[in-house]
Fold this protein.
Amino acid sequence: MNIYKRYFRKYRVLFFTATTFVFLESMADLLQPTIMARIIDEGVREKSVETVIGYGLLMLFITFLGAVFATVRNILASKVSQGFGKDLRADLFEKIMNFSESSADRMESGSLITRMTNDTAQAVQFVNGMMRIFFKAPVTGIGSMILAAALSPKLSIILFFVVSLVAVLIYISMKMSYERFAKVQYAIDKLNLVIQEYLLGIRLVKAFGRQNFEEEKFAKSNEDLEKKGIRSQLVIAYFAPVLSLVVSLGIALVLYAGSILFVRQEIEVGKVAAFISYMTQILTSIIMITNIFTTFVRTKASTERIHEIFVAEEDAEGGTKEFSSEAMSVVFENLSFSYPSGSGLYALENLSFCLNAGETLAVIGPTGSGKSTLVWLLLRFYEGKEGRILLDGIDIRDYTVEQVRNAVSVSSQKTMLFSGSIHENIAWSTPEMSPDRVERAARAAQAEDFILSMKEGYESSIYQGAVNLSGGQKQRVSIARALAKESKLLILDDSTSALDAVTDRKVREAIKEFKPRRTTILITQRIGTAMGADKILVLSQGKMEGFGTHGDLMKNSSTYRDLYVSQIGELDKVVI
Ligand SMILES: Nc1ncnc2c1ncn2[C@@H]1O[C@H](COP(=O)(O)OP(=O)(O)OP(=O)(O)O)[C@@H](O)[C@H]1O
């Protein structure tokens, strides 16, 4: 529950004011039965109308005060709990933004959404309840016990047994609830994931006629949630009637014992009535405490899930070195890396190559050979296990993560555009970017024609998921966005795969014209794209199969030659 501490500090004044009002409200409640006893014993029994009216008015006044206190504490409780919820969600969001890739791989997005919404809502409810009933129940309960004991020590013996029995029942129900509630939250995670996956691939699901399969998957998760939900509520379903039964038996016993004491003239009628009233207050408080414990148990499970986000690994920080040159040299020295969540096999193994500042490197290799992994390492999403990467001759870990990412622009394999205008998407790295730069980047990415053919040109909207653009159009906007960013290293990760060969060539030529001295890495499966680069790196199963110019590789790399033959034609027609 440590995560509440920092927020508690911020809201402590409002929190204490609210609890003060809760305390005052409880006092008002506690006074009622004693005044009632006076009305019966001093007013009704003595037939004194003035006494009945006097105490009656006092009772009304105290009730009114109690209502005022309750209103104030409700307002304050809402303010504090909603403010806390807003702060908690903001902090969680910030933390998730700084997640290391390993953390992001580990926590599925469906689970993160549940934690950000359901679990925080549970925490908000807990904080709200803490100020509304958490203090009220113990104060009213303990106060009632003291006043009841003062009224009749003998009847208090029955009270003691009833309260003890109820406390034991609550303890057992709490133990049973915790595990079940945690399972409910994980079932919600799973359901969210199924929904999310379906929504992301909705067209594919329909195209493959897999609706039935997806429906079944959803139904299974939905049923699982239903079962776990029922199991978690069964605890309350079983225990609530038992508690009510114990409470009713207790009241019956007090009435019975009270009547015996009354006959023996050891107690007055008003006092028995007040005792029953206090007993009801005590038992209501205990029921409230049961709710508190249920909320507490649920919140404990939710808090642990929120806590997991807060302690997740963040992007590594680094040293303080700064980039000096205009373009960036890139050196890999015996670098090996395997994904923390992967099979344990190296995604890149003992990789060494050197790319001078301003040069273009093409990385080619079959699928799964480690091409994208190289990009993630250059962006410091992951750290190499052995060996090192040098940027401008300095170990990548000696720069801050922010510096490295500022110096690199990337157009990734999975094109992702954001809802907003085309201009906003291209100028995404620098919102105040001049329209001229945006248009130049669009021209270089061969995107201007289709942008201008749209009704509102650069101000045309991109809908969520960029559903109103074709695959090739999305890729071109994504390339323009990478080009427009002021960077020293440009990485295009298979980002011209949806373009025809002519447009692909035009894009490559324009990239160099746009910023001639920018180091560029082109990741590709196409030999035609790789051929024109200053250097080509051939990867296969994470290992370097060749490195050099097109001519060098045609002589020395059988993998490269095979790729060439498969894509371009027979070797005897090849001019090396
Ligand atoms: N997040 C990840 N967690 C675990 N393993 C991964 C992860 N990403 C990639 N891998 C594994 O690392 C290896 C290299 O993957 P990578 O994406 O770098 O290949 P690639 O050459 O870019 O492939 P493609 O051309 O298909 O994009 C593959 O075996 C892949 O299964």
